[in-house]
Write a structure and sequence with these properties.
Length: 361
Protein backbone atom coordinates (compact mmCIF):
# COMPACT_ATOMS: atom_id res chain seq x y z
CA UNK A 1 0.00 0.00 0.00
CA UNK A 2 1.55 3.31 -1.01
CA UNK A 3 1.47 6.38 1.15
CA UNK A 4 -1.35 8.21 -0.66
CA UNK A 5 -3.64 5.17 -0.57
CA UNK A 6 -2.84 4.61 3.10
CA UNK A 7 -3.65 8.25 3.91
CA UNK A 8 -6.90 8.02 1.94
CA UNK A 9 -7.98 4.89 3.82
CA UNK A 10 -7.19 6.48 7.18
CA UNK A 11 -9.33 9.51 6.37
CA UNK A 12 -12.15 7.25 5.15
CA UNK A 13 -11.97 5.03 8.25
CA UNK A 14 -11.88 8.07 10.53
CA UNK A 15 -15.10 9.43 9.04
CA UNK A 16 -13.36 12.38 7.38
CA UNK A 17 -14.47 11.60 3.81
CA UNK A 18 -18.14 11.48 2.80
CA UNK A 19 -18.33 11.92 -0.98
CA UNK A 20 -20.39 9.54 -3.17
CA UNK A 21 -17.38 7.37 -4.07
CA UNK A 22 -16.25 7.36 -0.43
CA UNK A 23 -19.66 6.10 0.70
CA UNK A 24 -19.63 3.45 -2.02
CA UNK A 25 -16.22 2.16 -0.97
CA UNK A 26 -17.29 2.13 2.67
CA UNK A 27 -20.38 0.12 1.72
CA UNK A 28 -18.14 -2.44 0.04
CA UNK A 29 -15.83 -2.70 3.06
CA UNK A 30 -18.51 -3.02 5.74
CA UNK A 31 -19.33 -6.70 4.92
CA UNK A 32 -15.67 -7.49 5.64
CA UNK A 33 -15.83 -5.67 8.96
CA UNK A 34 -18.79 -7.66 10.27
CA UNK A 35 -17.06 -11.07 10.51
CA UNK A 36 -13.90 -9.39 11.82
CA UNK A 37 -15.88 -7.75 14.63
CA UNK A 38 -17.61 -11.05 15.43
CA UNK A 39 -14.30 -12.88 15.69
CA UNK A 40 -12.96 -10.22 18.06
CA UNK A 41 -16.09 -10.45 20.25
CA UNK A 42 -15.79 -14.23 20.41
CA UNK A 43 -12.10 -14.06 21.25
CA UNK A 44 -12.68 -11.55 24.07
CA UNK A 45 -15.55 -13.66 25.39
CA UNK A 46 -13.39 -16.80 25.48
CA UNK A 47 -10.89 -14.99 27.68
CA UNK A 48 -13.60 -13.38 29.81
CA UNK A 49 -15.20 -16.72 30.66
CA UNK A 50 -11.90 -18.54 31.16
CA UNK A 51 -12.15 -20.83 28.13
CA UNK A 52 -8.92 -19.25 26.94
CA UNK A 53 -6.57 -18.68 29.86
CA UNK A 54 -4.60 -15.53 30.55
CA UNK A 55 -1.18 -16.17 32.03
CA UNK A 56 -0.04 -14.35 35.16
CA UNK A 57 3.21 -12.67 36.14
CA UNK A 58 4.13 -12.50 39.85
CA UNK A 59 4.33 -8.71 39.72
CA UNK A 60 1.67 -6.08 38.91
CA UNK A 61 1.06 -5.53 35.19
CA UNK A 62 -0.27 -2.24 33.80
CA UNK A 63 -1.45 -2.34 30.21
CA UNK A 64 -1.30 0.86 28.13
CA UNK A 65 -3.00 0.55 24.78
CA UNK A 66 -5.69 1.70 22.41
CA UNK A 67 -8.69 0.37 20.55
CA UNK A 68 -7.89 1.90 17.17
CA UNK A 69 -5.05 1.47 14.70
CA UNK A 70 -2.55 4.24 14.38
CA UNK A 71 -1.06 6.66 16.87
CA UNK A 72 -2.88 7.77 19.99
CA UNK A 73 0.22 8.78 21.92
CA UNK A 74 0.96 5.46 23.62
CA UNK A 75 4.70 6.02 23.86
CA UNK A 76 4.50 9.45 25.58
CA UNK A 77 1.92 8.12 28.07
CA UNK A 78 4.01 5.02 28.76
CA UNK A 79 7.03 7.29 29.29
CA UNK A 80 5.07 9.55 31.66
CA UNK A 81 3.92 6.63 33.83
CA UNK A 82 7.39 5.07 33.80
CA UNK A 83 9.04 8.33 34.88
CA UNK A 84 6.50 8.83 37.67
CA UNK A 85 7.00 5.32 39.04
CA UNK A 86 10.79 5.52 38.80
CA UNK A 87 10.71 8.84 40.67
CA UNK A 88 8.98 6.97 43.51
CA UNK A 89 11.81 4.44 43.69
CA UNK A 90 9.97 1.73 41.76
CA UNK A 91 11.89 -0.62 39.44
CA UNK A 92 9.94 -0.52 36.18
CA UNK A 93 10.17 -2.84 33.18
CA UNK A 94 8.39 -2.18 29.90
CA UNK A 95 7.30 -5.23 27.92
CA UNK A 96 7.07 -4.48 24.20
CA UNK A 97 6.51 -6.54 21.10
CA UNK A 98 9.54 -4.97 19.43
CA UNK A 99 7.64 -4.26 16.25
CA UNK A 100 9.80 -3.38 13.26
CA UNK A 101 13.07 -4.64 14.73
CA UNK A 102 15.12 -7.50 13.33
CA UNK A 103 14.62 -9.36 16.63
CA UNK A 104 10.83 -9.09 16.51
CA UNK A 105 9.40 -12.39 17.74
CA UNK A 106 12.39 -13.11 19.99
CA UNK A 107 12.69 -12.36 23.71
CA UNK A 108 15.57 -10.00 24.40
CA UNK A 109 16.63 -7.36 26.90
CA UNK A 110 16.84 -3.90 25.35
CA UNK A 111 17.97 -2.14 28.54
CA UNK A 112 18.72 -3.30 32.07
CA UNK A 113 18.14 0.21 33.39
CA UNK A 114 21.80 1.15 33.17
CA UNK A 115 23.02 -0.08 29.77
CA UNK A 116 21.25 -0.22 26.41
CA UNK A 117 22.12 -3.58 24.87
CA UNK A 118 20.37 -3.43 21.49
CA UNK A 119 20.19 -0.98 18.60
CA UNK A 120 16.92 0.50 17.37
CA UNK A 121 17.19 -1.62 14.22
CA UNK A 122 17.20 -4.75 16.40
CA UNK A 123 14.51 -3.95 18.98
CA UNK A 124 12.30 -1.44 17.15
CA UNK A 125 12.13 2.33 17.40
CA UNK A 126 9.64 2.69 20.27
CA UNK A 127 11.40 0.33 22.75
CA UNK A 128 14.72 1.98 21.95
CA UNK A 129 13.26 5.47 22.39
CA UNK A 130 11.88 4.56 25.82
CA UNK A 131 15.13 2.90 26.89
CA UNK A 132 17.33 5.77 25.68
CA UNK A 133 15.30 8.67 27.12
CA UNK A 134 14.24 7.38 30.57
CA UNK A 135 17.13 6.76 32.98
CA UNK A 136 16.67 3.61 35.03
CA UNK A 137 13.96 2.11 32.82
CA UNK A 138 14.25 -1.58 31.96
CA UNK A 139 12.88 -2.64 28.56
CA UNK A 140 12.36 -6.19 27.29
CA UNK A 141 10.91 -7.21 23.93
CA UNK A 142 9.05 -10.35 22.96
CA UNK A 143 5.92 -11.23 21.00
CA UNK A 144 5.07 -13.54 23.91
CA UNK A 145 4.85 -10.95 26.67
CA UNK A 146 4.63 -13.58 29.43
CA UNK A 147 7.93 -15.08 28.34
CA UNK A 148 9.41 -11.58 28.08
CA UNK A 149 8.19 -10.84 31.61
CA UNK A 150 9.70 -14.03 32.99
CA UNK A 151 13.02 -13.15 31.35
CA UNK A 152 12.85 -9.74 33.01
CA UNK A 153 12.08 -11.32 36.40
CA UNK A 154 14.98 -13.74 36.07
CA UNK A 155 17.57 -11.19 34.93
CA UNK A 156 16.34 -7.79 36.17
CA UNK A 157 13.90 -8.31 39.07
CA UNK A 158 11.47 -5.41 38.39
CA UNK A 159 8.74 -4.33 40.81
CA UNK A 160 6.15 -3.66 38.13
CA UNK A 161 5.55 -4.20 34.41
CA UNK A 162 4.20 -1.75 31.83
CA UNK A 163 2.65 -3.64 28.94
CA UNK A 164 3.16 -1.43 25.90
CA UNK A 165 0.30 -1.52 23.35
CA UNK A 166 -1.35 -4.28 25.35
CA UNK A 167 -5.11 -3.66 25.26
CA UNK A 168 -5.71 -6.56 22.86
CA UNK A 169 -2.98 -8.78 24.34
CA UNK A 170 -5.45 -10.74 26.47
CA UNK A 171 -3.11 -13.73 26.79
CA UNK A 172 -1.37 -11.88 29.63
CA UNK A 173 -3.32 -10.93 32.76
CA UNK A 174 -3.12 -7.27 33.66
CA UNK A 175 -3.91 -5.63 37.00
CA UNK A 176 -4.78 -2.28 35.43
CA UNK A 177 -6.03 -1.61 31.92
CA UNK A 178 -5.34 1.94 30.69
CA UNK A 179 -7.10 2.74 27.42
CA UNK A 180 -6.03 5.71 25.30
CA UNK A 181 -8.66 7.40 23.15
CA UNK A 182 -7.86 10.09 20.62
CA UNK A 183 -9.94 13.10 21.69
CA UNK A 184 -10.47 14.21 18.08
CA UNK A 185 -11.89 10.85 16.91
CA UNK A 186 -12.03 8.26 19.71
CA UNK A 187 -13.62 5.50 17.60
CA UNK A 188 -13.03 6.71 14.05
CA UNK A 189 -16.21 6.08 12.05
CA UNK A 190 -17.24 3.39 14.61
CA UNK A 191 -16.58 0.46 12.27
CA UNK A 192 -13.92 -2.18 12.86
CA UNK A 193 -11.24 -2.98 10.33
CA UNK A 194 -11.16 -2.76 7.34
CA UNK A 195 -14.09 -0.32 7.07
CA UNK A 196 -12.97 1.62 10.15
CA UNK A 197 -10.09 2.22 12.54
CA UNK A 198 -11.31 -0.01 15.37
CA UNK A 199 -9.20 -3.06 16.25
CA UNK A 200 -12.24 -4.50 18.02
CA UNK A 201 -15.82 -3.33 18.62
CA UNK A 202 -16.14 -0.16 20.68
CA UNK A 203 -17.90 -2.12 23.47
CA UNK A 204 -14.44 -3.52 24.29
CA UNK A 205 -13.63 -0.11 25.83
CA UNK A 206 -15.61 -1.27 28.89
CA UNK A 207 -12.63 -3.47 29.81
CA UNK A 208 -10.68 -0.33 30.72
CA UNK A 209 -9.93 0.56 34.34
CA UNK A 210 -8.79 4.02 33.26
CA UNK A 211 -9.32 6.08 30.12
CA UNK A 212 -6.89 8.78 29.03
CA UNK A 213 -8.11 11.10 26.29
CA UNK A 214 -5.07 12.14 24.28
CA UNK A 215 -4.57 15.27 22.15
CA UNK A 216 -7.20 17.11 24.18
CA UNK A 217 -8.24 20.71 24.19
CA UNK A 218 -9.77 22.27 27.31
CA UNK A 219 -12.89 20.11 27.16
CA UNK A 220 -13.24 16.70 28.78
CA UNK A 221 -14.99 14.35 26.40
CA UNK A 222 -17.87 12.34 27.87
CA UNK A 223 -18.64 9.08 26.08
CA UNK A 224 -21.97 7.41 26.70
CA UNK A 225 -21.63 4.09 28.48
CA UNK A 226 -18.12 4.81 29.78
CA UNK A 227 -18.96 7.41 32.43
CA UNK A 228 -18.28 4.94 35.25
CA UNK A 229 -14.61 4.57 34.23
CA UNK A 230 -12.12 7.07 35.74
CA UNK A 231 -10.80 9.42 33.06
CA UNK A 232 -7.99 11.89 32.55
CA UNK A 233 -6.91 14.08 29.64
CA UNK A 234 -3.52 14.53 28.00
CA UNK A 235 -2.05 17.22 25.81
CA UNK A 236 0.93 16.72 23.55
CA UNK A 237 3.12 19.62 22.48
CA UNK A 238 6.41 20.11 20.70
CA UNK A 239 8.56 21.84 23.30
CA UNK A 240 11.98 22.44 21.74
CA UNK A 241 14.60 21.10 19.36
CA UNK A 242 17.97 19.44 19.73
CA UNK A 243 20.59 18.67 17.08
CA UNK A 244 20.80 15.06 15.97
CA UNK A 245 24.58 15.30 16.19
CA UNK A 246 24.40 16.51 19.80
CA UNK A 247 24.58 19.88 21.46
CA UNK A 248 22.40 22.42 23.22
CA UNK A 249 18.63 22.54 22.91
CA UNK A 250 17.17 25.19 20.63
CA UNK A 251 13.88 27.08 20.96
CA UNK A 252 11.70 27.19 17.88
CA UNK A 253 12.22 30.95 17.80
CA UNK A 254 15.81 30.29 16.70
CA UNK A 255 14.46 29.13 13.32
CA UNK A 256 12.54 32.29 12.50
CA UNK A 257 14.55 33.13 9.38
CA UNK A 258 15.41 29.57 8.35
CA UNK A 259 14.08 27.46 5.49
CA UNK A 260 13.06 24.03 6.75
CA UNK A 261 11.89 20.64 5.58
CA UNK A 262 10.27 18.05 7.82
CA UNK A 263 10.15 14.27 7.54
CA UNK A 264 8.61 11.53 9.66
CA UNK A 265 7.91 7.81 9.57
CA UNK A 266 5.14 7.60 12.18
CA UNK A 267 1.49 6.55 12.20
CA UNK A 268 0.12 10.03 11.45
CA UNK A 269 2.90 12.27 10.10
CA UNK A 270 0.48 15.02 9.05
CA UNK A 271 -0.27 15.74 12.69
CA UNK A 272 3.42 16.23 13.37
CA UNK A 273 3.76 18.48 10.32
CA UNK A 274 0.73 20.59 11.31
CA UNK A 275 1.98 21.03 14.87
CA UNK A 276 5.42 21.92 13.54
CA UNK A 277 4.05 24.58 11.17
CA UNK A 278 2.43 26.36 14.11
CA UNK A 279 5.86 26.80 15.70
CA UNK A 280 8.17 27.04 12.69
CA UNK A 281 6.85 29.17 9.85
CA UNK A 282 9.67 28.27 7.47
CA UNK A 283 8.61 24.68 6.64
CA UNK A 284 8.69 24.55 2.85
CA UNK A 285 8.37 20.81 2.17
CA UNK A 286 7.46 17.62 4.02
CA UNK A 287 8.16 13.94 3.50
CA UNK A 288 5.92 11.17 4.89
CA UNK A 289 7.40 7.70 5.31
CA UNK A 290 5.61 4.51 6.44
CA UNK A 291 5.27 3.96 10.18
CA UNK A 292 8.36 2.17 11.56
CA UNK A 293 10.12 2.63 8.21
CA UNK A 294 13.86 1.87 8.25
CA UNK A 295 16.10 4.67 7.12
CA UNK A 296 17.94 2.89 4.34
CA UNK A 297 20.22 4.48 1.78
CA UNK A 298 17.30 5.32 -0.53
CA UNK A 299 15.50 7.25 2.23
CA UNK A 300 18.66 9.17 3.11
CA UNK A 301 19.23 10.07 -0.55
CA UNK A 302 15.64 11.33 -0.78
CA UNK A 303 16.01 13.51 2.33
CA UNK A 304 19.35 14.88 1.16
CA UNK A 305 17.95 15.71 -2.28
CA UNK A 306 14.90 17.39 -0.74
CA UNK A 307 17.13 19.60 1.40
CA UNK A 308 19.28 20.52 -1.58
CA UNK A 309 16.41 21.19 -3.98
CA UNK A 310 14.40 23.24 -1.48
CA UNK A 311 17.38 25.23 -0.23
CA UNK A 312 16.54 24.20 3.33
CA UNK A 313 18.86 25.17 6.15
CA UNK A 314 17.65 22.32 8.38
CA UNK A 315 15.50 19.21 8.35
CA UNK A 316 13.28 18.47 11.36
CA UNK A 317 12.06 15.05 12.44
CA UNK A 318 10.60 13.27 15.49
CA UNK A 319 12.38 11.57 18.38
CA UNK A 320 10.99 8.25 17.22
CA UNK A 321 12.65 8.72 13.82
CA UNK A 322 15.86 10.08 15.30
CA UNK A 323 16.75 6.81 17.04
CA UNK A 324 17.13 5.22 13.59
CA UNK A 325 19.42 7.94 12.25
CA UNK A 326 22.52 7.27 14.32
CA UNK A 327 24.81 6.41 11.40
CA UNK A 328 24.35 9.48 9.22
CA UNK A 329 27.38 11.32 7.79
CA UNK A 330 28.37 14.16 10.16
CA UNK A 331 27.68 16.90 7.59
CA UNK A 332 24.06 15.71 7.21
CA UNK A 333 23.50 14.92 10.90
CA UNK A 334 24.54 18.46 11.84
CA UNK A 335 21.66 19.83 9.75
CA UNK A 336 18.94 17.61 11.22
CA UNK A 337 17.01 18.82 14.25
CA UNK A 338 14.85 16.61 16.45
CA UNK A 339 11.57 17.96 17.83
CA UNK A 340 10.97 16.92 21.43
CA UNK A 341 7.40 15.94 22.35
CA UNK A 342 6.17 16.68 25.87
CA UNK A 343 3.05 15.34 27.59
CA UNK A 344 0.87 17.20 30.06
CA UNK A 345 -1.51 14.89 31.91
CA UNK A 346 -4.49 16.58 33.57
CA UNK A 347 -6.42 14.81 36.32
CA UNK A 348 -3.41 12.63 37.07
CA UNK A 349 -3.62 12.57 40.89
CA UNK A 350 -6.33 9.87 41.08
CA UNK A 351 -4.40 7.81 38.52
CA UNK A 352 -1.12 8.02 40.43
CA UNK A 353 -3.06 7.14 43.57
CA UNK A 354 -4.36 3.98 41.92
CA UNK A 355 -0.83 3.11 40.78
CA UNK A 356 0.35 3.37 44.39
CA UNK A 357 -2.50 1.15 45.60
CA UNK A 358 -1.56 -1.40 42.96
CA UNK A 359 2.00 -1.54 44.28
CA UNK A 360 0.79 -1.91 47.88
CA UNK A 361 -1.32 -5.00 47.15
Amino acid sequence: MNISLSSYWRCLAAGQRSGPLDRLLLTLLIPLSLPYALIQRIRAGLFRYGILQSRYLPRPVISIGNITVGGTGKTPVTAWIARHLISQGVKVAVLSRGYGGTLEGSCAIVSDGATIRLAATECGDEPYLLASTIPGLMVVIGSNRHNAGMLALERLSPDIFLLDDGFQHLALHRDMNILLLDFTRPFGNSWTLPAGLLREPRSAAKRADWIIHTRCDDTILKISGLDHIPQASARHRLSNLFPLSGGEQLPFEALTDKALIAFAGIAEPDRFFNDLRKLAKGVVRTLSLPDHAPYDSAAIVTITAMMRDSGADYAITTEKDAVKLKQLPPDLASRILVARLELQLDGADPLTGDLLKLLQK
